[in-house]
Amino acid sequence: TMKKCNIDGYEIPDKTLVFVNAWAIHRDPETWKNPEEFYPERFLDSHIDFKGQDFELIPFGSGRRICPGLNMAVATVELVLANLLYLFDWEMPEGVKSEDIDIDGLPGLIKHKKHPLYLVAKKRIACV
């Protein structure tokens, strides 16, 4: 902080480093219905901006410390994902059902999968 302030009833002295817990913000049940469930469709018709303007979702940070690679990251992920979906059909390994997949993660600064996810990619279109 640059000067002494009060946040939600807590006195914060000047020159205090304040850590924003993005993990907790992204899993707030007051903002997200069933926040622990993997449900990407929740973002299809969402008004929430992931580029740091809405504090319900701040995967790249916000303000002066926003990730400088945000635009490149978004474009790269979109391009790679579009190509993977276009070129391959995806299925689970023989004998594995979708309900068998464990989506638990490990705690940390970023969330890593506790158990790896295995998928089988079958070439659908001849690569150019």
UniProtKB/TrEMBL annotation:
Q: Which Pfam families match?
A: p450
Named cofactor requirement(s)? heme
Enzyme class per UniProt:
oxidoreductase
Please name the InterPro entries in this protein's record: Cyt_P450 (IPR001128), Cyt_P450_CS (IPR017972), Cyt_P450_E_grp-I (IPR002401), Cyt_P450_sf (IPR036396)
Which keywords describe this protein according to UniProt? Heme, Iron, Metal-binding, Monooxygenase, Oxidoreductase
Q: Where does this protein hold heme?
A: C67
Q: What is its EC number?
A: 1.14.14.1
Which GO terms label this protein's molecular function in UniProt? heme binding; iron ion binding; oxidoreductase activity, acting on paired donors, with incorporation or reduction of molecular oxygen, reduced flavin or flavoprotein as one donor, and incorporation of one atom of oxygen
> What is the similarity comment for this entry?
Belongs to the cytochrome P450 family.
Alphabetical list of PANTHER family matching this protein: CYTOCHROME P450 71B3-LIKE (PTHR47952:SF3), TRYPTAMINE 5-HYDROXYLASE (PTHR47952)
Protein name per UniProt: Putative cytochrome P450 monooxygenase
This protein's species is Cicer arietinum
Q: What is the lineage of its organism?
A: Eukaryota, Viridiplantae, Streptophyta, Embryophyta, Tracheophyta
